[in-house]
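== Folding the chain ==

***
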Amino acid sequence: MKKVEAFVRHEAFEPIRTELLDRGFPSLSIAEYKGSGRQRGITEQYRGSSLTIHLRPKLKLEIVVEDTDVSVIVETILKHARTGQVGDGKIFVLPVEDAIRIRTGEEGEEVLQAHETEEIPAGT
């Protein structure tokens, strides 16, 4: 199993989420982050003064999948997040030792079974 962590621009999230859902990967977590990298600061004018913003907003996507599905996830993220400009983000792929579904106690890759492309009922 692998965990894919991606830091992307906010505007890239919805197309990524939609395509992952269409491909049978509805389960992912997101969090809002701020960070700096090669993009450095952006200078803006605010009430007549110059203000440099060094920390840029990003979304962090996290999804754990079977090893064989990593390329699908990475390709989907790259397809929608890549603009060719500095600040597009980063993708990290990390090993995962185990996964346990709390509700049933199931362990391993069966916890990660990709869902059919049908709508998943709320509360499951």
About this structure: The mean pLDDT is 87. The first strand starts at residue 2 and ends at 8. The CA atoms of residues 11 and 81 lie 8 Å apart.
